[in-house]
Amino acid sequence: MSDWETVIGLEIHAQLATKSKIFSGSATAYGAPPNSQANLVDLGYPGVLPVLNGEAVRMAVKFGLAIEAGIAAHSVFARKNYFYPDLPKGYQISQYELPIVTHGTLAIVLEDGSTKRIGITRAHLEEDAGKSLHEGLPGVTGIDLNRAGTPLLEIVSEPDLRSAKEAVAYMKKVHTLVRYLEICDGNMQEGSFRCDANVSVRHAGEHRFGTRTEIKNLNSFRFVERAINFEIARQIDVLEGGGKVVQETRLYDPDKGETRSMRSKEEANDYRYFPDPDLLPVALERAFVDSVRDTLPELPDQKAARLVSQYGLSAYDAGVLTSSRELAAYYEEVVRAAPADAKLAANWVMGELAAALNRENLEIGSGRLAATRLAGLLARISDRTISGKIAKEVFEAMWSQAMSADQVIEAQGLRQITDSAAIERAIDEVMAKNPGQLGEYRAGKDKLFGFFVGQVMKATGGKANPAQLNELLRRKLAG
Amino acid sequence: MTLTREQIASIAALARLELTASEFPVYQESLSRIIDFVGALDACDTTDVVPMAHPLAGLAQRLRLDAVTEEDHHEQYQPNAPLTAAGLYLVPKVIE
Amino acid sequence: MTLVSDFHRSTLTQLAAGLRARRFSSVELVSAFLERIEASQRALNAFISVTREQALAAARIADRALEAGTGGPLTGVPIAHKDIFCTQGVRTTCGSRMLDNFVSPYDATVVAKLKAAGAVMLGKTNMDEFAMGSSNETSYYGPVRNPWDPQLVPGGSSGGSAAAVAARLVPGATATDTGGSIRQPAALCGITGMKPTYGRVSRYGMIAFASSLDQGGVLTASAADAALMLREMAGFDANDSTSVEREVPDYLATLEQPIAGLKIGLLREFFDTGLERENERCVREALKVFEGLGAQLTEVSLPHLPLSVPVYYVVAPAECSSNLARYDGVRFGYRCENPRDVNDMYRRTRGEGFGAEVKRRIMTGTYVLSAGYYDAYYLKAQRVRALINEDFIRAFDSVDVLIGPTTPTPAFAIGAKTADPITMYLNDIYTIGANLAGLPAISVPCGFVQQLPVGLQVVGPHFSEARVLNAAHAFQRATDWHTRVPRGYA
After folding, report:
1. Which residue on chain B is closest to A27 by alpha carbon?
2. What ipTM, to 2 d.p.?
3. Which residues in chain B have their CB less than 8 angstroms from residue A250's CB?
4. CATH number, domain B5-42
5. Cα A232 to Cα A199: distance, rounded to the nearest angstrom
6. A420-468 pLDDT per residue, tens
7. Nearest to C12 by CA among C103, C120, C99
8. Where are the domains of chain C?
9. Chain B hits for A36, Cβ within 8 Å
10. Could you tell me the pTM of the whole model?
11. Domain boundaries, chain B
């Protein structure tokens, strides 16, 4: 029954890219040997106290400004009390009633190309917990507290999302934004960017929300989409069967493609939030906030809009090209060096280049193919030295060797043949060699045209200018 | 008594404190006494009074420079722990 | 010449001067006090750990510095630290089974500062478990006995430090005060105890009980000695976010100022029905001394002050329930045997590692913070706290300091008040207010009731330690209560 409406809210935890932890001077680098980056404060030893990292505050403010949110002049850290082995103090220092960032919004582009503004209720600072390792340790769990104390920005959306696809679009947008702002590296495999999804369903037109479940720790866009879709279907199943959705926390199992109830959350947790007496309220002055505002880069939406107006790109293309600052910067460098055709540049960056990078698992910043080298290739297409098809061969050569387009074209003799006489000669030769097909074509078998195009291309080593070839061939075949 | 046995059990569970059967009534009594005692606060009119979290009124949290100032001392710290292996703190298996 | 046998008759100030003048060595001094400590342990149980070898080694280093003339203000002077301060390489138990095997990998800032000033630590003193108590009867290591009468309590939670100073086992000791834990034992033991302004002394390395109330301070034989120690202990610490960036004045420089014209407020609420008549008599006699020195006495009223004990017994347990959650058997400290699973490990580790009073306060705190009760208890208490604070601020508009009794009674018998927690809690009725408002306060001996010491409390506005010490010192120059030593220890 399609009278069901889905309501989704996402809680995203972005690890802030500070050098040191939020309340101690320990390093935050990923992948260090167990407990080598956990000092006495991180370990929650008797007598230790937290001291707040100013950079974490800056980064939170930066995010708030980018989503046009309110920045609290006065925010308070609170203790969230619960017991878990990877939580050394038995409480997490977080923010509760007075978060540093209040209501903001973020625009996402839906599949049909329309824009939707998603509300963000709040974003607050908190410390990450450590890690529990269960593998390879019979009967015990190993606790690594390197991650304990890493700064997190928890970003809470309004329940404005209405489908798994919208949720993914929102998550991707936040992902892009935090990387633009250089406040988070967005590395989901390493756990720098995690998402919890709150999902509920209700009949279309109902005002009240249905009972929601929380799916925790989704760390890939694909998992988010699948988990949400599974959960929607599961909830609908339950309700249509006459049952009630149980409010609970669930985990997504990617191997089975299902969500299941989390065992340990059977007891309701009363977190007993209260303001942390070891920390004073964070006071942010106007001047401070303004200084952070001055450091904001051109944001994704602004950049995309500019690419549309400056280069005449479609909104879709601009969206793809601005999905990261590095990609957009690369693109603009290409266009500056090969200004003749901005759309051509867009196609090549999003097409051939992206495919080649993906194949070898490289980032745009890898420097494999400098923007100016690619620009050199595009210039040769624009000035018709080579055809688009030949350009792909040149690209392959340039990808594996540090040669310029001109060097490859020269070395392999790939210049496009635009000399009409030479093309005519080739056509004449092909016509002479294929009298049977010629006869059939002239008798009315039109689709043999492609055969002749292929033969002439073969005879010219693929270098005949396609437009000229078509025109001349038509004339000659016509008789 | 002000606090029921169930409440004592739930408080002890939240605080992860194992109470023996004989301890239950003792704590139930003393905790009830304490809660009754602090109930004296109800008589005080606190309308519009801002709660005082700490004596340093008007002071704001100092911000620290973002710099790594710590080295790896886990070999020095871990002898204090009841059970460790391969640099990890060990606890009985946690099932998620 | 000071005989070895007379070292304990000298004040901390005199000993520091004597060391500097090379009249005796730190090794001699330290050895003498170590002997006294060892001789008293069975009777008083004031120490949990005695660090004999380290003390003598430190004394030798001190002597070299003194020879070279490179010593600091406390070089070579023996002191003790309440076992709530983390001491690097030395067992730090906080009076609890939970930390019975805990050797701290770092020094508390207070410890480091006193070390830097040259002081020599002789050991860690006994205390109520996790600083929760007013009689030093909740310690895992057994009760401390009052040197004035071993059947009686020395007060708490800093009972060990107080007994040690009263019995002249050390000339000075560090201590902490959350609801009166320095001042109340000072009063019961006939010595001087000072709690500074909240934020004056770093809490880094001072095992937390109630974070918004805890302050580190000193127990000594006199206000002058307290001024010397406090000057070295106080100061901003970047490791403590609640440490205040404010210069530490030289408390010794203003100690001798005459107090003529000092405006003293007598707290009406302190002279209430709970105050034993004889205690009141001592305090009122002492007030005449202040008048004789030119101070002006007026009565002031802090109407919300009587609610300070209920406020405290909501706020302190709430904060402690959270501060003590880290004691879970995972990274340090006690762990129960053969835990079945993680929950069992938590429950039995904490059930077995903590004593009854600690568990009681953790549970009280858990309750007042829990869903549905937070507003009615915790938030309510913090609002009343604000009212009490305002009362103090208003009072200090018209007076310079507030004076009153430190405790309602003299020392009581061991075991006398353990049956009912409320009875015990009411011992702190006069001291708690200063913790709630974060004010500096000192207790000095002002007489005897049936041969037991009585204490007088002086409370000042924020960061008025110099004035508070000055007033106490003026009183001590005009009286000799602070020179009295219990029989057997003189």
Report:
1. B68
2. 0.96
3. none
4. 1.10.20
5. 7
6. 888 999 999 999 999 998 999 988 898 889 999 999 999 888 888 888 8
7. C120
8. 7-261+407-483
9. 72, 74, 87
10. 0.93
11. 5-42
